[in-house]
Amino acid sequence: MIIVFKPSATEQDIDHVTDRLRELGLKSQISRGEERTILGVIGDERILENQPLTVFAGVESVTTILAPWKLVSREFQKWDSIIDVNGVAIGGKTLTIMAGPCAVEKLEITVGIAHEVKAAGGTVLRGGAYKPRTSPYSFQGLGREGLDYLVEAKRQTGLPVVSEILDPRDTDVFLEKADIIQIGARNMHNFELLKEVGAYDKPVLLKRGLSATIKELLLSAEYIISRGNRNVILCERGIRTFETQYRNTLDLSAVPTLKELSHLPVIVDPSHATGKWSLVAPMAKAAIAAGADGLLIEVHSNPECALCDGEESLKPHRFKELMSDLKLIAKAVGREL
Ligand code: PEP
Ligand code: MN
Questions:
Q1: Spatial CA neighbour of 335 closest among 77, 82, 91
Q2: What pTM was computed for the model?
Q3: Quick one: 202 and 315 in the same domain?
């Protein structure tokens, strides 16, 4: 349910309604627009059937949200959310390009790639310190040491850092060392982890599950936001289909669909979506043309020797070339890079 207040509603009017909701055992989240203030009600709304909230001073309308997700919906918030990550605005006119190695390896390699990403115009450094590998015998990541390498790369380049969390017991270290916490495709359904990252205001990059529907992705985002963390960025990273020619099938329709249904920023990961470096640039361009707010791209200085996902990683000079092509596409769709 959403409660829309009149432009003339006072803070007291709003407090009066939130106090009443609390008395009834319901939670609420406020969204302040330029003209209207909206309250999203969370909890069993049946309690409100005999409680006409329209009689409260300042209330303009009370509407039931039909979608099963509420706080992430466009009904709750008409304008686009812009997430601030240490001065980098994600979801505004300017596109966000997150790039870096799949896995954090040696310090010199990580810092070297970070400088290349920065020089090419990338805005966020990506790098996995904890890797969710299909085989237990594959490189599992450097863990805390990897996060320290990212912090050093950030110190040298100024790029904020995104890295994937696998275990809620690592939350404190991620809160300290990462600027965006990534929830990977394999953990999109890990509801306890979603609730955990929902308890802070640290931005979260939520990737679509391997076989997750749009509805499931939005409900996972709702898990985070309903705990109080509004700083969620959605990521389309390809889904499993019958096609075996590439690693996954990039579902580009997800971009305008998510934008229609939700106010959250949407970025696209053409690296994991295709699994092949030669497909990354064309799909990155298509993603921006489709309205994505940014990209997540794997870049490695020596992909042949990368410890993870070298086959889909761009060499720095190719990433640089892509960035200059993207400027033209961005301009054509009214965005900036
Ligand atoms: C990643 O971005 O490092 C990753 C593992 O991707 P995904 O969760 O989309 O497979
Ligand atoms: Mn990878």
A1: 91
A2: 0.94
A3: yes
